[in-house]
UniProtKB/TrEMBL annotation:
It comes from the Eukaryota. This is Methyltransferase type 12 domain-containing protein. SUPFAM superfamilies: S-adenosyl-L-methionine-dependent methyltransferases. Residues 40-143 form the Methyltransferase type domain. InterPro entries: Methyltransf_12, SAM-dependent_MTases_sf. The lineage of its organism: Eukaryota, Fungi, Dikarya, Basidiomycota, Pucciniomycotina. Gene3D superfamilies: Vaccinia Virus protein VP39 (3.40.50.150). It comes from Mixia osmundae (strain CBS 9802 / IAM 14324 / JCM 22182 / KY 12970).
């Protein structure tokens, strides 16, 4: 998906459930933060979690880097950090392609070295081009050493970790197939236009282990997600890449309404009019890169 397609204001209005405590508590619970850790928030979006005290868990001297593919999202994250004062942690933001982490974070790496933990929430399912390249990049960042001048800040950290949450197999069931079929009916390859990577726990575990991560836990977690702004707004926010294949705004609106009508019996409460998407499969994992030798 084109990085410019993301609009921070629309994302925070339509998809603020991504940052809700209910949605983020399970993945944050997997974090094990120590004083002085360096943490990368991969796919940080508008930075709500990046600057949240929940990410540092009250530990002192924590350095956090937020990265996202969207310049608009990063601009909003920087602004949000300035407005709220952020957390007590040292926080920096970068525009970076998740498939090219070492390249796009080169300035950060040159000055500060690698990371103790890579954290990601609701982002990796957008990195469909080469999921293994993302994992390789994470592994490389965790493999990198910390400069001697910062050694005191990481003295307590012996295990490096990759912790995250993403959409998994069966996610968006119904909505996804309706999008694919609507495009297919118009002579567009809906599967080729589909931007999402929703692996099963077994297949993602295999990818992680291929890069020598030790998978401590990985699970499929159901999540029912109300859509206060309605299904049409949700489709326009999350499927601009698919809709861009259509010739005109009228065609795009027709497809959106067609999908809404197809899903209305299953996804809209006839009494309240509220729309709900069944995000039936969120994958959460915690993996260890390695355990340092005691000195």
């Amino acid at each position: 998906m084109d990085a410019k397609a993301w609009k921070a204001q629309d994302y925070r209005r339509v998809a603020n459930f991504v940052y809700s405590s209910q949605a983020t508590a399970p993945v944050l619970a997997l974090l094990d933060v120590s004083p002085g850790d360096r943490i990368l928030d991969l796919g940080c979006g508008t930075g709500e979690l990046t600057i949240s005290p929940d990410l540092t868990k009250g530990c002192e001297g924590v350095s956090i880097v937020g990265s996202d593919y969207s310049p608009d999202m990063i601009a909003k994250a920087i602004s949000l950090g300035r407005t709220t004062g952020g957390s007590a942690a040292d926080v920096r933001f970068y525009v970076a392609d998740g498939h090219e982490l070492v390249r796009d974070l080169s300035k950060e790496i040159e000055q500060y070295g690698g990371f103790d933990t890579v954290f990601t929430n609701a982002a990796l399912h957008w990195m469909k081009r080469d999921p293994l390249a993302v994992i390789k990049g994470v592994r490389a960042l965790l493999n990198m050493s910390i400069p001697a001048s910062m050694a005191r800040r990481t003295r307590q950290r012996r295990i490096k970790t990759f912790v995250g949450e993403m959409g998994g197999f069966l996610n968006m069931i119904g909505v996804r197939s309706a999008l694919v079929n609507a495009l297919n009916r118009r002579g567009i390859d809906g599967n080729a236009a589909d931007p999402w990577f929703f692996p099963s726990p077994t297949s993602y575990k295999r990818l992680l282990e291929s890069e020598n991560f030790r998978v401590v836990s990985i699970e499929h977690v159901p999540r029912i997600t109300p859509l206060p702004e309605g299904l049409a707004a949700w489709i326009k926010l999350f499927a601009p890449g698919q809709l861009a294949h259509l010739a005109s705004d009228d065609d795009r609106e027709q497809v959106v309404q067609e999908i809404c009508e197809a899903l209305r019996p299953d996804c809209q409460d006839p009494e309240t009019g509220e729309w709900t998407v069944i995000l039936t499969a969120r994958s959460l994992w915690r993996v260890h890169a390695w355990e340092r030798q005691q000195k």
